[in-house]
Amino acid sequence: MMLSPDQAEADLSWTQSDPETLLSGLKSAGCSSEDPAEEGEERSAGKHRAEQPLSREEKRRRRRATAKYRSAHATRERIRVEAFNVAFAELRKLLPTLPPDKKLSKIEILRLAICYISYLNHVLDV
Fold this sequence. Notes:
mainly alpha
């Protein structure tokens, strides 16, 4: 970025060693509030908000947002899905199909199991 000679002098005013000039330059740039008491009040107001008790839902949201919680949840979900798939595999082994190694979807396994149970009930009744 190129500065004109006029801009260079204005922008380098912070290099002066006079603290009052430096402080007034910072205040005019918006780096500090005009009244130090107001700044302390803003900080204490923010601190006061943090001290307010959180609702049950807010606590739950914050807990769920942690990496540790997400990792544990993902692990539980993986275990649940794996157990679910094992149960379907066991059910699949009990059902007669042609060819025997035919790959079936979960819904096909359930529908075939319903039909097979109905057939076995019919055989027992006859």
